[in-house]
Amino acid sequence: MTFSPSLPIYDVAAIRDIESRHAGVTPPLMERAGAAAVPQALTFAERSGLPPLIVCGPGNNGGDGFVLARLLRERGVEPVVVFTGDAARLPADARGAMDAYRTGGGKTVQEIPAGNFSLVVDALFGIGLQRPVEGSHAALIACINALGCPVLALDVPSGLCADTGRVLGCAVKADHTVTFIALKPGLLTLDGPDHCGEVRVHDLGLAPEDSVQAEGRVVTPALFADRLRPRPRNSHKGMMGGVGILGGASGMAGAALLAGRAALKLGTGRVYVGLLDNAALSVDTDQPELMLGRPGELLAQAHVTALAVGPGLGQGKDALGLLRQAVAAEQPLLLDADALNLVAAHPVLANRLRKRTAATLITPHPFEAARLLGSDIDAVQADRLHAARALAVKFKAHTVLKGCGSVIATPDGPWFINTSGNPGMASAGMGDVLSGLAVSLLAQGWEGEAALLCAVHLHGAAADQLVENGIGPAGLTAGETIDAARQRFNAWIRS
Predict the structure, then answer these.
(1) Strand order through the sheet with 198-202
(2) What is the pLDDT of residue 460?
């Protein structure tokens, strides 16, 4: 198996830096951007025989659209071009692109005419949009979305914040997006995936990492391929680490068991599950290999090489005491669910967490992240990348902010966005399985960053495989992803 490369991701400021470094290239960047969209536009036009519709906006994104329109005409395809702006106020490059289109005989109209189109090209707003779309432009976006033909967005769907994935008032829902130079965070997280459709990157011949190093990357197995090694034949369980899981308060034993099963099936040599409600059960009859016991006994277990605290933990006095002991332990530590809520509620405990020397992983969903940051969920979701990076720095922990396009941040700066997974994962227990996968890798000696990257991507890839096999997305359960994750992980190793 050949792993897909991990593509770089740049925020808008970095993209602008790259553009400025190449402002004098020949042909110009706008010419290259318009040309990059020609193959897809031609495919749709030639397939249907209908004209393409190109909606050009008042900035450089509109200029890209005019270049595309001119190049299509040169290839014998006559587009319908809508431009509602003021030509005199266009940026110089965009005005030049419009003039070149018109000089060649191209025409523009001020509103979308009645009729059928092979596709509509969204060249209304690009990556520079910062304020909500309103008025006539909002009406234009609504019309684009209602046309019923394929939509191709240039660089980013209009109305979508390129840095955050937020919809700014309203946004085009594209079937395809050709994005220029490199990926932007907003294409991959929050509302981005629901508005971008299939995303293709055209670097415009710039090789962006030759001029500006990317801090962000897309998660693929290429990032941790060096850890995907076959086991030596002379192996024993003691070489495969020991996981300790603390959780399972009254009525929530299932969360701890899911985490334990996931850790076991990802290859941990021994898995101990310390249930706060230790009278609930003495054996997991579906997975009898798990060793169930009292949480205090687990903390003293010499074979435990990594700890996970939180699945079904609750927020009672006993849970707080166990968490304090776990934070003080020397093993790598993963915190999830109520463990994070307890950290948010106890500043002294949070300070101790920051002082740990062993690897620390935290896996909050947006509500938990908001509590940890003393913020609210709207603020977290408004800029998921910023929130994840703030958490990583605040707690000196490798952090994943879960959700659509999970954001993974490291304490020393690099960040990542994961694109595996599907809506079927909006199901109880999925976070517990993720915790089990990640702590299993920690126990087996993986570094914190690699363990979290692999666990997050593997979990999503397992869910994707299940959907491909006809299981879900509706009704997909957390437990079903465990065996699928084991299968995918071993396939990676064999490759």
Answers:
(1) 80-83, 53-56, 120-123, 151-154, 176-180, 198-202
(2) 98
Please choose, from the candidates 357, 363, 361, 325, the residue with its C-alpha nearest in 3D space to the C-alpha of residue 341: 363
pLDDT digits (tens, 9 = 90+) for 151-179: 999 999 999 999 999 999 999 999 999 99
Strand order through the sheet with 398-401: 8-9, 216-218, 415-417, 407-409, 398-401, 360-362, 333-335, 306-309, 242-247, 270-275, 291-293
CA distance linking residue 264 with residue 437, whole number of Å: 9
pTM value?
A: 0.96
Count of residues in the chain? 495
- Report all structural domains of the chain as residue ranges with CATH numbers, in order of start: 8-217 (3.40.50.10260), 221-494 (3.40.1190.20)
And the tokens for 65? 């659209």
| Torsion of Cα atoms, 133 then 135 then 140 then 146, to 10° | 90
**Cα–Cα distance, 345 to 359 (Å, whole number):** 22
Residues of the chain with pLDDT under 70: 1, 280
Which residues face 376 on adjacent strands? none
pLDDT in tens, 54-112: 999 999 999 999 999 999 999 999 999 999 889 999 999 999 999 999 999 999 999 99
The Cα 229–Cα 493 span in angstroms is: 6
Please give the biggest Cα pair distance in the chain: 83
| Beta strand spans in 126-238 (E) | 151-154, 176-180, 198-202, 216-218
